[in-house]
Amino acid sequence: MENPLPQRLKAARSAAKLTQMQLGQRLGLDDNTASARMNQYEKGKHNPDYQTLRRIAEVLGVPVAYFYCDDDALAELICMLAKQPPATTAALVVALNSNTTTC
Description:
7 helices
């Protein structure tokens, strides 16, 4: 199975209308390495550590889980769910649990 992180990172960055350089700068990377580092992540040559990925997720407005999801529909649901108020999320979990078994 292919690592979904590079594709998800590029999609989230593009949706946020940021260049690789801009994303790197917002993460506090040096201007000389910001674009190259983001490019390496998007090409799958290197993977960010968890703390870096948390910062990337925060800047791009997506949950960290989005980057690891290898199913497109589930990735979209993760993003949609993360944007809901806590009460809505809780109600959805209850509703879904009443129709299925848990993991």
